[in-house]
Design goal:
It comes from Nonomuraea angiospora. GO terms for molecular function: peroxidase activity. This is Deferrochelatase. A hairpin with a 5-residue loop joins strand 9 and strand 10. The protein is of the alpha+beta class. Helix content is about 15%, strand content about 20%. The chain has one domain. The N terminus is likely disordered. Helix 1 runs antiparallel to helix 2. The chain is globular. The chain is built from 8 helices and 11 strands. Strands 3-5-4-11-7-10-9-6 form an 8-stranded antiparallel beta barrel. Strands 1-2 form a two-stranded antiparallel ribbon.
């Protein structure tokens, strides 16, 4: 039987969240297996917050997203560190289904503002994860971090065809909130922004629904707004060797403080939905290089059949064209580079001309964007037939530090310590 545990009902859990909640879910502060394979037994239950790596990366992807990028407004290093400590304490509570502060939404002095906004009262944890990242702009001369900027946090190049909007790109700090309940994700970001008042300001944010990637083999492959299964060959949390090689940063990479962390790239990709919807099925399938129904590579029958780029049809032509998305994005076309994708669909209303402002909010984690995202995206930007139907309007690159080890640790301690 599914147990719905209220946020106030979990108040008694310690800050480390080391308690059994629901059917067999242990929230531990010593989750150091490789890879971390924490699964919530239901969409109501919590994931562990403490661990070697941040949650929300290889965690089985949840259904909803609220992503935010902040600009740091304080000029005092000590105030920024204090904020990160406060955020970490709140995140540890929120991810376990508790309220943001010890007094909650209604437990404090009536004449004072509550230390939780209250819109998630009575809701379970809903698999909430909170993942923080630091943008290149944080490593300027404000906080003495210039010499700690990782080489892998190099500015992304300008890709052909992109139409980036500066106001919805970049940022000093990002937080990715993923959950199975949109109100839980929004509540978490709202409270972090409230706690950060006077020290940070929201630069831009994005809501997402309908995950467009699977990060565990226990999950079915979802579909993007073009109707195709997305992320069939994504890195999975079960791929221990690939994760060590392709996902997690190492001290050997040149930045000791990033060991156990990962680099996040975000891209808001608007789709020409109306044009796509008038395109023939055969052309749609040729553009992706996959069957729309099953998700099988063209020339094959099942989604996970190996892609065969040499296979030809009765007409002697390759089933998968040279400009097909699956060919250009495949590791064999990019020096064996892999990405762990955690993207989401978005619909942000209409553009005033009767067209949906909709598409994919792309999120990908990797060990080194210079060797992974950059060559893959450059290949796609130059040659992908899909470019006729999409445009990139937002971009972000963030260094996501290692996980929070215990209640005495905090987000970014390895950077600021």
């Amino acid at each position: 039987m599914s147990q719905r545990v209220s946020r106030r009902g979990l108040f008694g859990l310690g800050a480390a969240g080391a308690a059994v909640v629901g059917a067999g879910v242990v929230a531990s502060n010593t989750l150091f297996e490789e890879p971390p394979v924490a699964h919530a037994s239901s969409t109501s239950d919590p994931f562990p917050f403490y661990g070697e790596h941040q949650s929300g990366i290889v965690t089985p992807a949840q259904d909803r997203l609220h992503f935010v990028a902040f600009d740091v407004t304080t000029k005092k290093r000590a105030e920024l560190i204090e904020l990160l400590q406060e955020w970490t304490a709140a995140a540890a509570r929120l991810t376990q289904g508790k309220e943001a502060g010890s007094y909650g939404a209604v437990g404090g002095a009536p004449e004072a503002a509550p230390d939780d906004t209250g819109e998630a009262l009575g809701l379970p944890a809903s698999g909430l994860t909170l993942t923080i990242g630091f943008g290149a702009s944080l490593f300027d001369d404000r906080f003495g971090l210039a010499d700690k900027r990782p080489a892998a946090l190099a500015d992304l190049p300008k890709f052909p065809g992109e139409q980036l909007i500066p106001e919805i790109s970049g940022g000093d700090i990002c937080v990715q909130a993923c959950a199975h309940d949109p109100q839980v994700a929004v509540h978490a970001i709202r409270n972090l922004a409230r706690i950060g008042f006077g020290k940070v300001s929201v630069r831009w944010s994005q809501l997402g629904f309908g995950r467009t990637s699977s990060t565990s083999r226990s999950q079915a492959t979802p579909r993007n707004l073009m109707g195709f299964k997305d992320g069939t060959n994504n890195l999975k949390l079960e791929d221990a060797a690939l994760l060590r090689d392709q996902l997690w940063a190492s001290a050997q990479d040149g930045s000791d403080w990033m060991a156990g962390g990962s680099y996040m790239v975000t891209r808001k990709i608007r789709m020409g939905i109306e044009t796509w919807d008038r395109t023939s099925l055969v052309e749609q399938e040729q553009i992706f290089g996959r069957d729309k129904g099953e998700g099988a590579p063209l020339g094959k029958k099942a989604e996970f059949d190996p892609v065969d780029f040499a296979s030809k049809g009765a007409d002697g032509q390759p089933y998968i064209k040279d400009d097909a998305h699956v060919r250009l994005a495949h590791p064999t076309s990019n020096g064996n580079a892999h990405l762990l994708r955690r993207g989401y669909n978005f619909v942000d209303g209409s553009d005033g001309l009767g067209r949906l402002d909709a598409g994919l909010f792309f999120i990908a984690y990797q060990r080194d964007p210079r060797k992974q995202f950059v060559p893959i995206q450059m290949n796609l930007a130059k040659h992908d037939a899909l470019n006729e139907y999409i445009k990139h309007v937002s971009s972000g690159l963030f260094a996501c530090p290692p996980g929070v080890r215990d209640a005495g640790d905090y987000w970014g301690r390895t950077l600021f310590g």
